UniProtKB/TrEMBL annotation, chain A:
Gene Ontology terms: cellular component: cytosol; endoplasmic reticulum; Golgi apparatus; nucleoplasm; protein folding chaperone complex
Gene name of this polypeptide: Psmg1
Name of this chain's protein: Proteasome assembly chaperone 1
The family this protein is said to belong to: Belongs to the PSMG1 family.
GO biological process: cerebellar granule cell precursor proliferation; chaperone-mediated protein complex assembly; proteasome core complex assembly
Organism, scientific name: Jaculus jaculus
Purpose: Chaperone protein which promotes assembly of the 20S proteasome as part of a heterodimer with PSMG2. The PSMG1-PSMG2 heterodimer binds to the PSMA5 and PSMA7 proteasome subunits, promotes assembly of the proteasome alpha subunits into the heteroheptameric alpha ring and prevents alpha ring dimerization. Chaperone protein which promotes assembly of the 20S proteasome as part of a heterodimer with psmg2.
Description of how the protein assembles with itself and partners: Forms a heterodimer with PSMG2. The PSMG1-PSMG2 heterodimer interacts directly with the PSMA5 and PSMA7 proteasome alpha subunits.
Subcellular location: Cytoplasm
GO molecular function, one term: molecular adaptor activity
Biased composition (Basic and acidic residues): 27-38
Record-linked InterPro entries: Proteasome_assmbl_chp_1 (IPR016565)
Keywords (A to Z) from UniProt: Chaperone, Cytoplasm, Endoplasmic reticulum
Residues covered by region (Disordered): 1-38
Automatic annotation (TrEMBL), chain B:
Residues annotated as domain Proteasome alpha-type subunits: 5-27
Name of the protein this chain belongs to: Proteasome subunit alpha type
CDD domains given in the database record: proteasome_alpha_type_7
GO cellular component: cytosol; nucleus; proteasome core complex, alpha-subunit complex; spermatoproteasome complex
Keyword RNA-binding on entry: no
Subcellular location: Cytoplasm; Nucleus
Organism: Jaculus jaculus
Similarity field: Belongs to the peptidase T1A family.
Keywords: Cytoplasm, Nucleus, Proteasome
Amino acid sequence: MAATFFGEVVKAPCRAGTEEEEEEDDEGRRETPEDREVRRQLAKKREVRLLQGQTKTSLEVPLLEKYPCSKFIIAIGSNAVAFLSSFVMNSGVWEEVGCTKLWNEWCRTTDTVHLSPTEAFCVFYRLKSNPSIFLCQCSCYVAEDQQYQWLEKVFGSCPRKNMQITILTCRHITEYKTPEAPSSLPSPFLKALKTQTYKDAVCCSLLEQPNIAHDLPAAVLSYCQVWKIPAVLYLCYTDVMQLDLVTVEAFKPALSSRSLAGLAKNIPQSTEMLKRLMTTSEIQSNIYT
Amino acid sequence: MASRYDRAITVFSPDGHLFQVEYAQEAVKKGSTAVGIRGTNIVVLGVEKKSVAKLQDERTVRKICALDDHVCMAFAGLTADARVVINRARVECQSHKLTVEDPVTVEYITRFIATLKQKYTQSNGRRPFGISALIVGFDDDGIPRLYQTDPSGTYHAWKANAIGRSAKTVREFLEKNYTEDAIANDNEAIKLAIRALLEVVQSGGKNIELAIIRRNQPLKMFSAKEIELQVSEIEKEKEEAEKKKSKKST
């Protein structure tokens, strides 16, 4: 332990390990049955469950094994979800085929049984007129330890390669590493990251190093890269992470990509629907005016 | 690197950043948009109204405040910080009038607010004010003024500017559309402010608040009806412009 100039205590690792310290560590490492039970219960609480469409019964096989698809569009985060809801889902008839239900510390409730849809669900839809086109709306946060489970439940352990994945998500602009000052960046803006097997043109510039993708989008992209599935991530850097009209409209260039082309038909109506979505989901907070 | 130099306001990072000031500028972006336009004979302040809770008294949620009879300001950022700054500015306006027997100039009160903000970037144990302000008014010489301050304590005069959420989008719109013709007429300046806000406001005219000061006249707040009228005029003009465009192309 060390105290800094400002009085904060910082835990610094000690390289001079002594025998006594190692013994103490060993004692701490021995697991009691109680520990094991707690760990088991926690794992059960954090289990990702795949539920089938309307019946909400558990689905035992991976989703894409039961419903093979050629195009899979995943929206992660409120702005990406709003974009797909107003521009893509509004222009066709989609049926809900399943959802994943999960709980983690990010959920605002400790009740793991009665979870609200936006807190803990990723909902999967299929286009009725073309059942090989799939869509996923994910507004909840999938924690690091749940991402692999999510991928297994959705894609399975041996996925088909003849499908194309498009992921849409947002990130705060302060996390964009660039020599330019953050205030000079034209926020919001779109960047793309794709797997090696993705050969189509992307509708914006590629994400430069040392910037990286994070969380579930990164997990999906890594999975696709390993399994040689063509996939592209469209990452919108914005300074408004809550539902925001300008941020949602920043995804519009993605409509020209091959995976989304033809899915968005009525743009003026979509813009109207987007404005309605904004008014219904305004959060009232008095801290900022 | 940032995490070691962003705790105390008085610490510079090795590359010369005061991270708390920069983080305060992020807090400003969490407030809704405000736009200010300096016309030839008018100054206009337009803001995106915050959505008010059902049981909340709307009159107590204000983004545009008068500092004196001839000066008013709009802010974006932390509500409580704005209240403190506005109170201090109002007291200073009256104190100046009592001492010097002249009302403050717009530049004077802007400098006062900016100096206050700067003090909080150089004090131990205090954090900067998390607000940016647009200050408008007419001086005794009859010249319209528009100033903007930010959490670092800098202030600049502008012809037109925007602060808060999506300020960049609004500023780009203003850069394209602010012309001498656009602001020659009072009504055109008001329309320009509303058009700029409509670019980013979530739900159209009913979420816009507008205030104007004309030369030798007190501050005037527009009613919801007056704003709706302006918005419908703007929409008509847009439709006509689009019809003309489609005629030309055919």
